[in-house]
Structures are given as C-alpha cells and as structure tokens.
C-alpha cells in the first residue's frame, strides 16, 4: 500500500480492477469525489467509509499511515486551552519543584467543586468549564501530593479521577485529542492505583472515543471489547447498576468502532451484549459520579439507529427515530439518556433527512438542538456537514431557517 490515504484508495481500486468512474458508481458517489480522495484532498470520514464499503475493505485499511483530518478552527478558546495544556503538562526537569499547598487541602470541598464543574460540562457551559478546569487540575494534583498515605490518599485520588474524567470529556468534545489522551492516561493510572475496575473501564471507554476521533477504528473496537471482557459480570442478576452500565457502554464503544470499520458481524455481536445489559437494567440508569455514564434501553436503541445511519440506511433511521423505545412516551417511562447522547441521535436523524433530500426537516432538527445546546452544537463537524449538504442539494432558494443555521455553523 502507499504511504497516504490517496495512495491507499488508488491501490485498492486498482486491485479491484476498477476505474475511478467504476468505483464512484459502486459507491454511489461522483467521480470527482474519488479523484479528490486519490489526490490527497480532505475527505470526510463518512465518504471514506462509503469507499471502503464499496471496495469490500475495512475503513482502517484505507487510512493506514494517512494523516489525521485537520481539527476545525477553534471558537476563541485558544488561550484557555493553553492554560489547560500547562496544567496537564507542567514542565519537568532538574530544577522544577512541585509547589506545596499553602493550607491543608479540604477534600470534601474539592470534591464538591469537581461535581459543580462536571455539571458545567453537561450544561454546555464550555467557556466557564475551560476557565475553571486548569485551577481544579492543579488543586487536585496538590491534594494527591499532600496526602501520601492513608484513607485521605485514596480520597484525594478519587477526587482527581473525577476531575480527569471531566477534563477528558471536554477536551474530546472540542477535538483536543492529544490533551484528552493525556487526561485519560492519568485517569487510568489513578484508577489502577485505587484498584477501581470501574474507573479503569471509564478511562478505557474515553480512550475508545479519542481513537475513533483519530480514525483508529480497529484499535478502538479492540480496546472496547477487551474492556468489556475484563469487566463482564460473573452473574448479571447480581451485578450493580454501575457495573452493568459500564459493561453495556463498553460494548456500545465496540459497536461504534466496528461498524465504522465495516465489521458488521462484530458490531452486531457487541450490540447483542449491550441489549443484554440494558435488559437487565430495564430502564435508563444514571450512574454514580464514579462511573459517570447513563445507560439503558433508550441508549441502546439510539446506538441501533446510529448503526443504520453509518450503513446509509436512512429510511430505517427515520422509521425508528421517534417510535417504540425512542418515542416520547417510552422515554418518560424508561428514563432519559444523557442530553449529549440524545443530541447525537438527533444528528443522525438530521443527516438521514438531508441525504433523502428533506432539507427543511434536516434544518429544523439542527435548530432544535441549537436551542437546547448551542455550545455543544458549535463543535459538531457533523452538523456542518449536514448544512453543507443542504446548501449544495437545495434547488430552490434557502429558507430563513437554513440561512440562520448556516450562519451559526459557518456554512455559506
């Protein structure tokens, strides 16, 4: 294979005995898209997945040795991200001394601050979150240095685990993958020091998401499966809610990586086990601060819709999006998923509408998400892709809603 994405697409196409036009026809794309991919242009992950599927290859094979997609431009948080970088990656050398706390760290107060900052993440208060996290990291580090033994040491580590979990989620959300990786590495180390299986599994789950953001689908799926195997309950009927929720989420991470890599049998196998975990819970369960996940039948149903979206089965997406387990009545009975998980589900719905030429419906879905989570939506490349598709595919003049949504996302 070649050294980059373009070479790989070309090599696999030639191995199949196809011209660029024949590959484009098999994939349902235009020949210009295939040419762009082979010339090393910036190709969307969705397009790469479609090309791999047409060639009968895993998506990862086309990406071997290819550079990462460029991260979207930041939204003015550059200086705050730099402060986070300094807090996570302080200078190390002979003359660098770690500061001693001015007073005895109060762990109960620090834990409560960490909880409040975590709520800022789920409340999409990203500006406040980026401003608060550097100091919180330093205070958590200082507490761990201060308490070097005894129960206070374990409590200090547990507080820092919660801090790193929030940091990693935020940094993954804003596509700062290198810093998210460092946060997860430190979360994993603290979880191991505590002997906490759930904390280690939480770090691994976050790492799977980072790997997917880097296009490393096979590695993500493998890590997720290994994690699920490690924490599988001996007896499902005796497992606690947190344990079942984390086990189920590990399987959903495996589904996400496998289906993006065209490994549909592996994805279905993991999906069956996720359904098993959700069935044992019987409802959406919001885990404790330790596990930090919400999982249940609604979450699994959203994952099933996501699989259909990735496969390009848009009619199934729309048929299932608001029915049965995902219907409003069922969600009132079973419980609500995490808001961000629900919004990602609605992005799948918007994409299905757009691909079927239902441009106004796609736009209205995005507008609804924007009303509820504008900060979250502003970081979603998928939203920009949907609106770009609307602008390109619209034959008539754009509606006011389309212009509004396009302006918000920077799509012209």
Description:
It comes from Streptomyces uncialis. Residues 12-62 form the HTH cro/C1-type domain. There is one protein chain. By secondary structure, the protein is mainly α. Among the domains are: 5-63, Orthogonal Bundle (434 Repressor (Amino-terminal Domain)); 77-195, no CATH class; 359-412, no CATH class. Helices cover 71% and strands 1% of the residues. The chain is built from 22 helices and 2 strands. It has a two-stranded antiparallel ribbon with strand order 1-2. A hairpin with a 7-residue loop joins strand 1 (285-286) and strand 2. Helix 1 (5-15) crosses helix 3 (31-38), helix 10 packs antiparallel against helix 11 (197-213) and helix 19 packs antiparallel against helix 21. It is globular. The relative contact order is 0.07. Mean pLDDT is 87; it is low at 66-76.
Question: What are the defining features of this structure?
Answer:
412 residues; mainly alpha; two-stranded antiparallel sheet; 22 helices; 2 strands; 71% helix; 1% strand
* Largest beta sheet: strand ordering: 1-2
Q: Tell me the fraction of residues in β-strands, as a range.
A: under 5%
What's the overall average pLDDT, rounded? 87
Number of strands: 2
SSE topology string: HHHHHHHHHHHHHHEEHHHHHHHH
Number of helices in the DSSP assignment: 22
Instruction: Supply Rg.
Output: 22 Å
Residue windows where pLDDT falls under 50 for at least 5 positions: 66-76
Report the end-to-end length measured between terminal Cα atoms.
Answer: 37 Å
Structural class label:
mainly alpha
Largest sheet, in brief, is: 2 strands, antiparallel
Instruction: Using the alpha-carbon principal axes, give the shape.
Output: globular
Helix content: over 70%
Protein name: HTH cro/C1-type domain-containing protein
InterPro entries: Cro/C1-type_HTH, Lambda_DNA-bd_dom_sf
GO molecular function, one term: DNA binding
Pfam family, one: HTH_3
